[in-house]
Design brief:
mainly alpha; 5 helices; 63% helix
């Protein structure tokens, strides 16, 4: 999701989504880390079947990041991303709409990844590889 959100909401207009020509922290956070996480998920064969509350738990970090970003911005006027900055055109209404879109996208992708992981676990069960999440 970090990679997708960067491409859709954060990247400067006209920046190609496949570009690796970024300031190195942005490149690591918005390009390399999402690529490695996707590869890890695809290539690691140990599967864990989890409960349906897990996708909601995965929203804790984005929620904490959001609270931290708004708190820091309120203190010093600097917001990590423009779509979180209420001082720009549209104010808080624009920020809340963009934030809601991002959180819903995170939740949808989390549910899809969770469902796919459970499906992988069910397939592995026939091979003795199924593990239940505690």
């Amino acid at each position: 999701m970090t990679g997708l959100i960067y491409v859709v909401l954060v990247a400067p207009p006209g920046e190609p989504w496949w570009s690796w020509d970024l300031y190195w922290p942005q490149m690591v956070h918005h390009r390399l880390a999402p690529l490695l996480v996707a590869l890890d998920w695809l290539l690691v064969t140990r599967t864990v079947q989890g409960t349906w509350g897990r996708p909601l738990a995965w929203l804790v970090y984005p929620g904490a990041f959001l609270a931290f970003s708004w708190g820091r911005g309120a203190l010093d006027g600097w917001y990590v991303y423009d779509f979180l900055d209420p001082t720009l055109d549209g104010g808080w209404a624009r920020v809340f709409v963009a934030t809601a879109q991002v959180l819903v996208a995170f939740l949808v992708v989390s549910v899809l990844v969770h469902a796919a992981g459970n499906a992988r676990s069910a397939l592995a069960a026939g091979k003795g590889g199924r593990v239940r999440d505690p």
